[in-house]
Amino acid sequence: MADKKTEKFNNLQEEFNKIQEENKHLDIGMHLAKLEDLPELGEIQIYNYDNDIIESGERADDVVNSLVDLYLGDAPSVKNHNYIQNKMKEDANVYADTLFLTKMTKKTFINQMRQVDNGDNNARMYEVMNQTMGQYRENIKFSQNQRTELEKFYKEMRKDLGLNEMESKVEITQDSEEGGEEQNMVMDSRKMNDNIYLMEKKK
After folding, report:
1. What whole-number distance in Å separates Cα of residue 24 and Cα of residue 31?
2. How far apart are CA 135 and CA 138, in angstroms?
3. What is the average per-residue pLDDT within 6-25?
């Protein structure tokens, strides 16, 4: 058994020495690509995901704040309520994640198309691209639906709190027949808190 191993080792050693002897004058440099023959690859850049996260957060904050200002801007006492403020933060965080995922899906799809442009044309690559394209389309649709749901929520909140009725009455004043006093329609803070509490329980 040992003789067979020794014989095999010797054969391999002889083969290795033969290869070395035959190629001792070989210049490896002759077979390497020259720098001027290589394509311009440019500098390798590390993608900054933090920037996308920050940008998505800022955009989501802007969307939610402008949305709340549209429906509740004329009622500061409602807009600045703790529940509304916490709801705005929660909505902005969820919407920011949606925007970020959409960005990442788009980036992935672009990278896959570049792979195809660089010669990766196998069937599996096209299958992956189709899946990513479908996911990208779903993300866009989900983002639009989420925004529509936010608009619907704050619009219904305005209605449930009676702000629509108040908007039509708040500017109306009546002259008292006795003393000519003006009576302005105002929202009772206790009633507003009760209405918001009921909305929280609905959730």
Report:
1. 15
2. 5
3. 81
